[in-house]
Amino acid sequence: MSRPNILFFLTDDQRFDTIHALGNRRIHTPLLDRLVGGGTAFTRAAIMGGSCPAVCMPSRAMLHTGRGLFHIDRQGQSVPGEHVLLGEHFRRAGYATFGTGKWHNGLAAYARSFRDGGEIFFGGMNDHWNMPACDFRPEGQYPPPREVHARFGAVRVRGNQRYDHFGRKHSSDLFCDEAIDFLLRRRPADRPLLAYVSFMAPHDPREMPAEFLGLYDPSRIDLPGNFLPAHPFDNGELTVRDELLAAMPRTGEEIRRHLPDYYAMISHLDAGIARVLAALAESGQADRTIVVLAGDNGLAVGQHGLMGKQNLYEHSVRVPLVLAGPDIPPATRRDALCYLHDLLPTFCDLAGLAAPGSCESRSLAPCLGGAGGRDVLHFAYRHFQRAVTDGRHKLIEYAVNGRRTTQLLDLAADPLEMRDLSAEPAQAETLARLRAQLVHWRTELADPCGEFWEAMWSNRPLKWPALEEN
């Protein structure tokens, strides 16, 4: 059998519970619903966390290398040559690799990954109607991102033409149109393809065509069940940029304004993905293409009194992950614990390739048949938050300004993570077991702040200045 194509859509800041077919009755996602109905949804997929407030940067570095949070280069700003990238590996295997949209992991890494592309955004966030995107350069020489932003301002440069881009096309449409052009006009006929379409939506600023915002009536939007006016304690990141997007204390009225905008951006990108899949069908390649939808991290949007993703609650570390296509079980949901960066070896298994030696994650191919999955997931945010879950219970530890805070949560009984059980005597064994897992992580995964955390978990004295930002 010939190797399958892979068409991979990655969204930006899309929370795991923002697909209608997976339980969100308020959101309008007809294409994603169809994808869920025709494929397998991994309902416990997560990222490992982040080493900086721009969580998407390390998240994407992990995704493209199959390596864990402490085994990527610094914060994911670049990818060393010895860390083989997803696109690079498939390119070497004879795939026609294509990339469009957001790329947040260095110019050289993009050049190593793709042999075609366009409308490439080398950055983290931007006005969606004024995207400083680059054309594909076969030689791999791209201007530094700061120069791109400075040069474009309110205009774009394409070839020798210079024209006003403001208000012309939303980023999601820009990237989808580029993918459609590749599928219908530039796709090599003699090779399988790996096409990577990386959205900047639903990342703020929350802008979208008006007809999608019209799908949502703020008065009919439910507040999250774990909405709070403020986070109950200092988690170390209460004044980061994302948290300043709404007034403090939070109000229900303001969150009901944010959620329709957030949902409308997802509905808009849903429509864009539908257009790309229509082009895939027109190309005659749909029957031999595995379609993948995933998000790079979640977002609070009012939950726990937070707005951003700089925390280790479920709303911020869990992501949507759906696969559909040849040999993928249809209308199936799997609750296996897994990481987003498990996709690299998964794609390799589905394509009949060995994973690169630098990849250290696990393939989800056995999980498609109902086996496999991880026993635990570990999480970290910067140097002051650590967490672990076995699927039932979750432990989050904080070390902020000399103060230690512990949360032990029962995800089955309390999926919104509102009740801390750490002080209950009946939970002492569970607390000790999960703390032992975190100590194991310190040695197994080379946590650069592991000495401090191990001392804290063992109740050994350690001066706070020993805790440093990684």
Q: What is the overall number of helices?
A: 13
Please identify the structural class as seen in this structure: alpha/beta
State the domain count: 2
Report the β-strand fraction as a percent range. 15-25%
Number of E-type strands = 17
Query: What's the alpha carbon Rg, rounded to whole Å?
Result: 22 Å
CATH superfamily of the largest domain: Alkaline Phosphatase, subunit A
N/C terminus separation = 46 Å
Low-confidence runs = 152-167, 464-470
What's the order of the H and E elements? Answer: EHEEEHHEHEHEEHEHHEHEEEHHEEEEHH
Summarize, please.
The protein has 470 residues and is of the alpha/beta class.
Structure, described:
The protein has an eight-stranded mixed sheet with strand order 6-5-9-1-10-11-2-12, sandwiched between helices. A five-stranded mixed sheet has the order 4-14-15-16-17. Strands 3-13 form a two-stranded parallel sheet. The chain has helices spanning 30-38, 56-65, 86-92, 107-113, 145-152, 171-186, 210-213, 252-282, 314-317, 343-351, 365-368, 428-444, 450-457, and strands spanning 5-11, 39-42, 45-46, 49-50, 96-102, 116-121, 155-158, 161-164, 193-198, 289-295, 321-324, 332-334, 338-339, 377-381, 385-389, 393-400, 403-410. The protein starts with a strand and ends in a 13-residue tail after the last helix. The protein has 13 helices and 17 strands. A hairpin with a 2-residue loop joins strand 7 (155-158) and strand 8. The chain folds into two domains: 5-368, Alkaline Phosphatase, subunit A; 377-466, Arylsulfatase, C-terminal domain, CATH 3.30.1120. Residues 152-167 and 464-470 have low confidence and may be disordered. By secondary structure, it is α/β, with parallel strands linked by helices. It is globular, with a radius of gyration of 22 Å. Helices cover 29% and strands 18% of the residues.
